[in-house]
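Structural prep section.
Before we set up the soaks we want a predicted structure of the protein with manganese (II) ion in place, mainly to decide which crystallisation condition to try first. Input record follows.
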Amino acid sequence: MGFLIGISGSIIVDQGGRFPGYKRAYVNNDYIESTALSGGVPFVLPVLEDEEMIKAQAESIDGLILSGGQDVNPLLYGEEPTTKTGSPFLARDQSEQLLLKHVIDHGKPVLAICRGLQILNVAYGGTLYQDMSDIKESFIKHDQYNNTSDPSHSIMIKDGTRLHDLYGNQALINSFHHQAIKDVAPGFEVSAWAKDGVIEAIEKQGNQFVVGVQWHPEMMAKEHTSMLNLFKLFMEHVQQSAVKKVII
Ligand code: MN
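Run finished without errors. Recording the tokens verbatim:
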């Protein structure tokens, strides 16, 4: 016990109340609860600029959860922003790209969720669709809007992947995204698709546990054991890689 799980944070700006415009560092509490329920010690990582500090964040944790949030700045994957893209947050993109690089270089496990999957893909050379309407074949509602813990569409899972070991050929997931992966980053493979072909999960090739999912397992984990099991699988890898580090 006692494995530290870093959860990448964001900044929220007060829209009213006593301090309009005041900035607060935060993560959604579901990430913290899901981490704790699966046996990890949650540790919120704020957005930083200084690479040495980000490196220290990466060194201090045993595993990383990249949380959801803003659209990735399209300039990072070589595109101009279209009118359908959301408000970017470049400082967070840069902070998380550096964090990812250092965590992955240290051989530590990563679970990347929603925007997390998107920044993971972009950080390693992949691209995104800036809006689901840019995908001609897409006919599924990928933003269920509310009812966070309810599954809303199915996914098909590729044989031989970590997700397949966990769920078999199919699973039911929630969906709150208006962007999706276009080109998959080199060194990664797609492990799940929605029935309209939209990419729902990627995994890093090789032994290191680096899994990105387009849905929000942390919102389902309390009501649906299967989604808590994704955190538990991540935690098993965290324990293994931390133990290996001690032996070396
Ligand atoms: Mn979806």
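Observations: The CA atoms of residues 77 and 159 lie 29 Å apart.
Flagged for discussion at group meeting.
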